[in-house]
Amino acid sequence: MVYGFTVYYTFTGQMMVAMYWMAGGMFLQATMDLLVSLFPSWAKKLMENRM
Known about the structure:
This protein is an all-alpha fold. It contains three helices and no strands. Keywords: Membrane, Transmembrane, Transmembrane helix.
């Protein structure tokens, strides 16, 4: 979804907004990866509850 916004803003000529969306998405992904690596048991429980 974030990359969809990035593509939309890129092709409509609003490159700065697209770069903010891209940076925000990458930051969110990095934060989630960090949490999963620091708390693997919590992440495992979370994934088991989703299924």
